[in-house]
Design brief:
This protein is α/β, with parallel strands linked by helices. It has 23 helices and 30 strands. The protein has 4 domains: 306 residues, beta-sandwich domain of Sec23/24 (Immunoglobulin-like); 223 residues, von Willebrand factor, type A domain (Rossmann fold, 3-Layer(aba) Sandwich), CATH 3.40.50.410; 164 residues, no CATH class; 130 residues, Severin (3-Layer(aba) Sandwich), CATH 3.40.20. The protein is 30% helix and 20% strand. Strand 8 and strand 9 form a beta hairpin. The radius of gyration is 29 Å and the shape is globular. Keywords: Protein transport, Transport.
């Protein structure tokens, strides 16, 4: 059955989804640097209190995106107004009580401010929210209605909002009340029958506080015209061949087209291969031989595609193999494809104007880089890019990039901007070996995660609220009539929106409706509708949660990678940490919380840096102020955790540890010596050192100290030492108890299980051990924290705390600068070792 929609926002192929010329260019959901005004604000030397609040929560914070997109439960704070001990605050996301009918990955919200008095409670509504309408984590929450007869989805005759699945809105069997304007509307007989059946099936899990199951309806059957077309633009230059990247490209495409995931996603799709260097190369088969057509003159105003050379990989697999083998074996004298790639994109985009398709660019990144143009030229290009981007979005065209970094400099380029603004995926690799190891999965993942194109999104809010801003997936802000267009979508597409309170609220909940129209890969058109209810906060309890601490620490690590000198990094950390500590203690009041239960020398930076082991972050900030550049769109999770720990890995000299009298008394205080910067050059004295990496504890013996110095105290088990012996009455030395106490504190701080110690000795056959030590500790300069002793560090904290108090809780922002060599080493230099310890 084919469903149709009624109401002011009905969707049809003729209406158009192609008439939003007022929209500005669409942005990536994990990338903010394309907004020059936002960049200027974030790196300004002085920031007002309101600007700081906006910087922390507003617009589209990448850290917020990652936190809200995080599938691990440690970063979520469950919130129930009646029972919860935690009230969500800035940067704290919440979920409702876990129920079968609630998708925890659909909606996340953050609070702009924390209410400090009853009169401020209305302001505690979640004014920033992120929805994931195409999340595949809980498909049971989405009804897909496809029967044999047409069905009209009811919409409100007054405000245009669509029917809500909250049972209390249905009455008299044939009417429903709109949650957004309270108008009464009729329900058609056919819809009423299906609705009653659905409500009976889910009666047990239906409550007012839960988001009801969403619906996904077919509004137009698949088209019988041209099938979906995947276009691969391949760098065939001499440099690409010499680096081995061309071979990796061919292997990745061959692997993807033969994979079952691709066949399921694109059962009838065709593929088209175009090579580029300084010219464009088209391939066609004639009598099982590959003929190559070369287009050299690329300066014409209107370049026409010669003819359709697309192939069905399912029916003509041998032909696909022949063309790819020809591309791999072809030789070329041209060093790069600087002049041809943008023309190739324009030609293929023209080809996709009248059919569904996607463009995938695989090549060297320096082939699309150009010298920085003048200011006038940059403005002209930006205006031209905006118009061209809007054209691509209107036709549902997106561009993926898979680039090998063949150049140490990172510049801005039109094709990269088109990728980000049309919702494409961006992957790049610093070495050919890293590309060879991940390119196959990246290409397959990009295609298998692709859902469709040309999305139109509308968000409605209940009385007293107005949708102020929407950023849907890769989107523009300030949409007209709360409607935006998005080019490409996948299971990770997110819809970010901000609300503005325009009047007092009559109820304790705000209703939100997210309506999404999209075209799938088979050419069918569908509508997906989500409803959610956002409760207000009824009281102020504990307003600074541990999840906030983790998020702020992750944010610190993110920005630290861009500090230009160790001194700047050190000062920046002091500011951020005291900011966190002051807020934490100020909000806790008489309840000291976890911070003051720690030993004195773990109350400062070490305790909070340990939270990094649990924090997943994306690093995507401008590497140069005022420049629309970025470093990486996606970074592997394991590598990101390593990057976090690189910021401040700890090392404690246990041989210098002093033991207080009555150590074995359970009431005694833990005495931990001052931690130092973790670097191989810090191992100056013979002895035993305790260090932490990736949620593990390492005991290092250095110099003439043999393994037996601690193996006699801790029973080793294949290189691991259990902290808790199987026999509880077994004697434990002071050394063993001390380590156990340290680890218990770290477990309490981080919720990471520190139950085993990994013993490594300098005398071990230790090439791997030495490399781990080097990549873990050697990337942080000794002067980072060694230049300032603990007393000086604490004095600086006090000064900063006083400054914070005098400036009404704000600090001057720190300029974000580029540290390319530091970041490159962390992310890529020891990649194989990172994989072992990730």
């Amino acid at each position: 059955m084919v469903f149709s929609t009624t109401g002011p926002f009905s969707f049809s192929p003729d209406s158009s989804s192609r008439n939003s010329t007022d929209e500005v260019a669409i942005l990536s959901p994990y990338y903010t640097s394309l907004d020059d005004d936002w960049i200027t604000k974030s790196i300004s030397s002085s920031t007002s209190e309101s600007e700081l609040s906006e910087f922390t929560v507003g617009r589209f914070n990448p850290i917020l995106s990652e936190r809200l997109d995080n599938r691990n439960y440690f970063s979520k704070v469950s919130y129930d107004p009646s029972t919860s001990d935690y009230v969500p605050t800035v940067l704290t996301d919440y979920t409702f009580s876990s129920k079968d009918s609630t998708d925890p990955c659909f909606l996340r919200s953050v609070y702009r401010t924390v209410p400090k008095s009853p009169t401020e409670i209305p302001s505690s509504l979640p004014f920033s929210s992120i929805a994931h309408p195409f999340s595949i984590n809980n498909p049971a929450c989405v009804y897909r209605w496809e029967n044999e007869r047409e069905l009209s989805i009811p919409s409100c005759v007054t405000c245009g909002a669509y029917f809500s699945f909250h049972s209390r809105t249905i009455f008299s069997g044939s009417q429903w009340r709109c949650e957004f304007c309270d108008a009464c509307n009729s329900i058609t007989d056919d819809f009423s029958l299906i609705l009653q059946q659905m409500l009976m099936e889910h009666e047990d899990s239906t409550t007012d506080n839960l988001m009801k199951p969403s619906f996904d309806v077919l509004v137009k059957e698949p088209s019988t015209g041209s099938p979906f077309l995947n276009i691969f633009l391949i760098d065939i230059s001499r440099t690409s061949a010499n680096t081995g990247f061309k071979r990796s490209i061919v292997d990745a495409i061959t692997f993807t087209l033969a994979n079952e995931k691709y066949r399921v996603k694109f059962p009838n799709a065709k593929v088209l291969f175009i090579g580029y260097d300084n010219a464009l190369h088209f391939y066609r088969l004639s009598k099982q031989r590959v003929n190559e057509i070369v287009m050299i003159d690329l300066e014409e105003d209107e370049i026409m595609f010669p003819y359709d050379t697309s192939i069905d990989p399912n029916e003509n697999r041998p032909d696909v193999v022949r063309i790819l083998k020809h591309i791999e074996n072809s030789s070329n004298d041209k060093a790069n494809g600087r002049n041809a790639l943008l023309h190739a994109v324009k030609i293929t985009a023209k080809l996709l104007e009248n059919r569904q398709g996607k463009i995938h660019v695989l090549g060297l990144d320096n082939t699309i880089r150009k010298q920085c143009p003048s200011l006038l030229e940059r403005r002209r290009r930006q205006q031209s890019l905006q118009l061209y981007t809007q054209s691509l979005i209107e036709h549902g065209i997106s561009i993926d990039l898979f680039m090998l970094e063949n150049d140490s400099e990172i510049y801005n380029d039109l094709v990269e901007q088109l990728c980000l603004k049309t919702g494409g995926n961006y992957h790049f690799y610093l070495t050919s070996s890293s590309a060879q190891s991940t390119l196959k999965e990246d290409v397959l993942g990009s295609l298998s995660g692709f859902i469709g194109t040309h999305v139109k999104i509308r968000i409605s809010a209940s009385n007293g609220l107005r949708v102020k801003q929407i950023k849907a997936g890769k989107v523009s802000d300030y949409p007209k009539n709360n409607i935006v267009d998005v080019s490409a979508i996948n299971s990770e597409t997110s819809i970010y929106f901000e609300l503005e309170q325009t009047a007092s609220l009559s109820t304790q909940a705000a209703s939100i409706q997210v309506l999404t129209f999209y075209r799938t890969t088979d050419g069918s058109e569908r509508v997906r509708c989500h409803h959610a209810r956002l409760p207000t906060v009824s009281s102020k309890k504990d307003v600074f949660s541990k999840a906030d601490c983790e998020t702020l620490v992750a944010s610190m690590a993110k920005y630290a990678a861009y500090m230009s000198t160790t001194r700047n990094l050190q000062n920046w950390f002091c500011r951020k940490i005291i900011d966190l500590l002051v807020e934490y203690r100020a909000q806790q009041g008489k309840d000291p919380g976890i911070c003051e239960s720690l030993p004195e020398n773990l109350q400062s930076y070490p305790s909070y840096m340990m939270a990094l082991m649990k924090s997943r972050i994306f690093i995507n900030n401008p590497s140069k102020p005022g420049r629309n550049t970025f470093f990486n769109f996606k970074i592997k999770t394991g590598h990101v955790k390593v990057i976090c720990m690189m910021i401040y890995p700890l090392i404690i000299p246990l041989h210098n540890m002093g033991f207080k009298s009555g150590f074995e008394d359970s009431s005694c205080q833990l005495n931990i010596p001052e931690p130092t910067a973790a670097s191989s050059r810090c191992l100056k004295n013979n002895g035993i050192y305790l260090s932490f990496l990736q949620g593990k504890i390492y005991l290092w013996t250095y110099g003439g100290v043999p393994n037996t110095s601690f193996n006699n105290s801790l029973v080793p088990d294949q290189g691991n030492v259990p902290l808790h012996p199987s026999n509880p009455h077994e004697y434990k030395s002071r050394f063993s108890i001390q380590i156990e106490n340290i680890c218990n504190y770290l477990t309490k701080i981080t919720e990471v299980d520190f139950s085993r110690v990994h013993c490594l000795s300098q005398q071990d056959s230790g090439e791997t051990q030495n490399e781990i030590l080097e990549c873990s500790f050697g990337l942080v300069e000794d002067q980072l924290f060694n230049s300032m002793d603990l007393e000086q560090f604490q004095n600086n904290l006090k000064v900063l705390a006083q400054e914070k108090s005098q400036n009404k809780g704000t600090f001057s922002s720190i300029n974000v600068k580029e540290v390319k060599s530091f970041f490159h080493k962390i992310r890529f230099q020891k990649q194989d070792i990172f994989k072992q310890i990730a």
